[in-house]
Give the backbone structure.
Amino acid sequence: MLKGKTIILGVTGGIAVYKAADVVSRLKKQGANVEVIMTDGAMEFVNPLTFQTMSNNPVHNSMFNKIEKFNVEHISLAQKADIILVAPATANTIGKIANGIADNLLTTVIMASNAKIIFAPAMNTAMYTNPIFQSNMKKLEDLGYEFISPGVGILACGDYGAGKMAEPEYIVEYIRGALMEKDLLGQRIVITAGPTIEPIDPVRYITNHSSGKMGYSLAREARDRGAEVVLISGPTHLSPPDGVKVVDINTTVEMFDEVGRYFNDCDVLIKSAAPSDYRPEKSMENKIKKKDGEIDELNIKFVRNPDIAEYFGAKKEEQIIVGFAAETDNLYEYASKKLKKKNFNFIVANDVTKRGAGFKSDTNIVTIIHQSGKIDEYPIMSKESVAKIIMDEISNIIKNKS
Ligand code: PMT
């Protein structure tokens, strides 16, 4: 995802340095080239060897290294950066940059670079809320520097409050978003995700295996490309993606109502959820009890739920609607029928019996069937990569419309 990108990670002296090693590891996993600059303060906390090993690059620290080949280090680092991330960023380093002080390699590289600069502050609450620090931060924000807000919690000093560096997972997501082309800027995209649950009584329900991973990956990709995203989600164990409006629902009828609330004003609707087609006719008010002496059977009558995709497919005007098809056999035939019946612009078919495809897994194996009859088959890939392909298709449809 970050292949071909160079991230300069500035590590300054705070206890959250240990989390910065995790940031490097996550950036590397996404394919980025990471060059670490440590301040002297950071080196008091962690040996540079840690960052050298994680980044697979020598760690930079001094402005005055012996020159082996002529290459002014602060200028070459400043020029090769796609992004400069400072994590953890101390009040001291932020203060220096806000006031034009360049007295070490990191502050000098920042001064010399045209790349986007992002800070992940980490400090004691009293320092974070100090008006001097706040005004330095405001000054930099006004100049286009970005800040990843620290979390609230118990800090290393034992105090409670704001100042905990954001979690590495979140920082890397932020970087990924910052580097993406904003080709979906201005698009309002509604995405449905996860299963629905249909109650039988107060303690039991029927559901399916959907984890929400596919839909949540779509939401993150759309957000990172500039779209305004509403994620209508059945119950999942996933963390709500930042910067996305998440609407929680339980049943198919609730999902239908929420899609209805957002449909008229949206540009794109993506139906990646697995809503239940049927629900018990009646949800019992009290728990159904086993009764002695009665026959060993329990009959529950099910009634049809609305088909959300079909209903809004019939109503669509300018909207792009993307459907999914979860099949166990006759993938092309069944998916093609759904494409037409539900009036989708294209359908993403997955054979949920295949290993690494469909429910729960981090990967999927999809075939996209277009209205024209064109079929694109894809190999196994992460759900993030599937989300990228789907957003590329949507982006092309939008470009061709205008
Ligand atoms: O959530 P994950 O664990 O990551 O798994 C991903 C997934 C397998 C759920 C996803 O890739 C997927 O295939 N989603 C569609 C599941 C499904 O309900 O497929 P379907 O073939 O039954 O329905 C066809 C389309 O109609 C789907 O877009 C579905 O959202 C929609 N539908 C179905 C029933 C219903 N009552 N209303 C609907 O809108």
The longest helix spans residues 383-401. The CA atoms of residues 21 and 51 lie 6 Å apart.
